[in-house]
Design goal:
Blueprint lengths: L1 H12 L26 H4 L7 H8 L12 E5 L6 E5 L39 H9 L7 H14 L1 H8 L2 H11 L15
Antiparallel strand pairs: 1-2
């Protein structure tokens, strides 16, 4: 009891050393909670641009990978009325694929659908090199693509046998995926 009285006297004599603290700020108990204003970047409801829009933005001087409308809108004299005007397209833009190298090697029927042609090292691994480039890897990663295809065929043989019709054709495809055995690493011409 004496200690308690001594403690209370110390609190009165030295108030800065007390354990008492001012009451917390009064909280608003009515109404909906206030929202914190967000930055314009996080508040945006715009869509994420597609892969081709990103590519077009990085290469503004190249041809656009998607067709743009040739109809422009102009605002009329009255508010809220719009009219459409046809704009003429230059004749040089009718066939932009003609500017792609090696396009003459592709059949005419398929040319409008070609967006780009990649020229890779022609050593018999060119197909694997193209796949690795389009997967976002470099051309030297063609070994990873080859090994992934070998493992896919090996692990899912029962799924691919009906596709190739015979065991003999499956074996031809599977053996053709294995890397060449020449000293310089190039595939022999019969595997090209």
């Amino acid at each position: 009891m004496k200690l308690f009285i001594k403690y209370k006297l110390c609190e009165l004599g030295f108030p800065e050393e007390t354990m008492l603290k001012p009451p917390p700020r009064k909280l608003a108990t009515k109404g909906a909670p206030k929202r914190v204003k967000s930055t314009p970047k996080t508040r945006s409801t715009g869509r994420i641009p597609s892969r081709w829009e990103n590519i077009d933005a990085q290469n503004p001087d190249s041809q656009c990978s998607h067709a743009k409308s040739n109809v422009s809108k102009t605002k009329g004299s009255r508010l809220g009325t719009w009219s459409r005007l046809q704009t003429s397209t230059p004749t040089s833009k009718k066939e932009p694929y003609l500017q792609i190298p090696y396009i003459s090697q592709i059949p005419n029927l398929m040319r409008p659908f070609v967006e780009d042609i990649v020229n890779v090292k022609g050593d018999g691994n060119c197909g694997f090199r193209v796949v690795s480039r389009h997967m976002g890897l470099n051309e030297d990663s063609h070994v990873l693509v080859r090994n992934a295809l070998i493992n896919e065929l090996k692990n899912h043989k029962s799924d691919y046998l009906p596709f190739y019709a015979t065991e003999k054709r499956y074996k031809e495809i599977f053996d053709g995926l294995h890397p060449p055995t020449t000293k310089n690493g190039d595939a022999p011409p019969e595997k090209w």
